[in-house]
Amino acid sequence: MIDPRRLRVLRALADHGTVTAAARALHLTPSAVSQQLAALESEVGHDLLRRRGRRVSLTPAGELLVRHANAVAAELERAQAMLAAFDAGETGRVEVGSFASAITQVVAPALAALRVRAPGVVLRVRDVEGHASVPLLLDGEIDLAITEEYRLRTDDRRLTRFPLYTEPFDVVLPPAHPLGGRAEVDLGDLADEDWVVTLPGNPVRDVVELACEQAGFAPRIAHASDDFSAIGALVGAGAGVALVPRGAVRGVPVRGAAPLRRVVAAVRAGSEDHPLIKLVREALHHPAGTYSDS
User: Fold this and answer.
1) CB burial of residue 133 (10 Å; 0-12, 13-18, 19+)
2) Helices 19-26 and 4-16: crossing angle, nearest 10°?
3) Quick check: 247 and 291 in contact, CB under 8 A?
4) Which residues 6+ apart lie within 8 Å of 34 measured at CB?
5) Where are the alpha helices (DSSP H) in 59-144?
6) 284 near 94, Cβ under 8 Å?
7) What letters, b where the CB count within 10 A reaches 16 and e where it falls short, cover 219-236?
8) By C-alpha distance, which of 238, 101, 227, 223 is closest to 172?
9) Which H or E element spans position 25?
10) How far, in Å, CA of 144 to CA of 272, rounded?
11) Inter-residue contact 31 to 18 (CB < 8 Å)
């Protein structure tokens, strides 16, 4: 193995021309420089220096090794610069878990902004439902989770959360539905309809069932899917009605106090001040603030 510290001595000799001048530049004694160069020759198995009295010059093998030494020094400088950029939050990778509509509304615009503002920051996005992203966050598989506020325990000190946006739920009606021409729809008017909802365990289903309960009925569930595009297609085919977040499928506003989805970004407690996390949070907040219907 070649000792990179000895390569530095060889480079100094090539730069300054004499052992004395190299020693002065390195803050070493001429004897120490000579010893380092002799040890380097032993390591590589080649004569690196031509010695003529007090003067020395590089052999072809020495010149070849200097070129490699310069390349090694350049890589070390780049590594040092990258580490400094990493410490400053200008480079690195952040893993984000988010449900699909938030990817569309805030994550994708944030990713585009970061590519311009901080090209050294790589955002890796994973499509995952909000209720499933928190375990991934706590397990260290992602660095930031975008989820619904009410899915997070307020007393969970393992997490720090930051509000992103609030969006209402809209009613989605089949074509030519009698209520389709209204500016707003009363949920109670849909008590006798078939419903298209998300699967059990999806927090959107919880919101729908609670909203219907508050309107005085339990929805008659005919179809279920966690894909909002599929829900929209089923409603469009006349399979039933749906209540979905506005960012997922645009529908008709609910009369009165519409159900709301409050969306937050959550990180592991203690990581909120990491420069990369802060940079991503700031990038998320701009499109979130533009999008929010709160």
Assistant:
1) buried
2) 120
3) yes
4) 19
5) 60-87, 100-102, 108-117, 130-138
6) no
7) beeebbbbebeebbebbe
8) 238
9) helix 19-26
10) 10
11) no
Alpha-carbon torsion, ordered 217, 215, 254, 232, to 10 deg: -20
Write down the pLDDT at residue 289: 67
Assigned token pair, 211 = 């909203």
* Average confidence (pLDDT) over 117-135: 87
d(CA 43, CA 192): 87
pLDDT in tens, 92-113: 899 999 988 899 989 999 999 9
Query: Which band of pLDDT confidence, cut at 50, 70 and 90, is reported for residue 294?
Result: very low
Would you state the pLDDT for residue 153? 65
By residue count, the chain amounts to 294
Q: Report the alpha-carbon distance of residue 232 to residue 221 in Å, rounded.
A: 15
Strands 144-148 and 260-268: what pairing? antiparallel
Residue type, 10: L
Instruction: Please give the share of the chain, as a percent, with pLDDT higher than 70.
Output: 92
Query: What is the residue whose two structure tokens read 């969306």?
Result: 263
Q: Shortest CA distance to 106 belongs to which of 265, 243, 218?
A: 265
Calculate ∠ Cα 200-201-204, nearest 5°. 85
- Which residue do the tokens 């909002």 mark? 228
- Tokens describing residue 272: 């909120």
Single pTM value for the model: 0.65
Decide which of 157 and 284 is more confident: 284
Residue with tokens 């106090």: 257
Instruction: Return the number of other C-beta atoms located less than 10 Å from residue 39's C-beta.
Output: 12
| Average pLDDT for the chain | 88
pLDDT of the residue at 151: 60
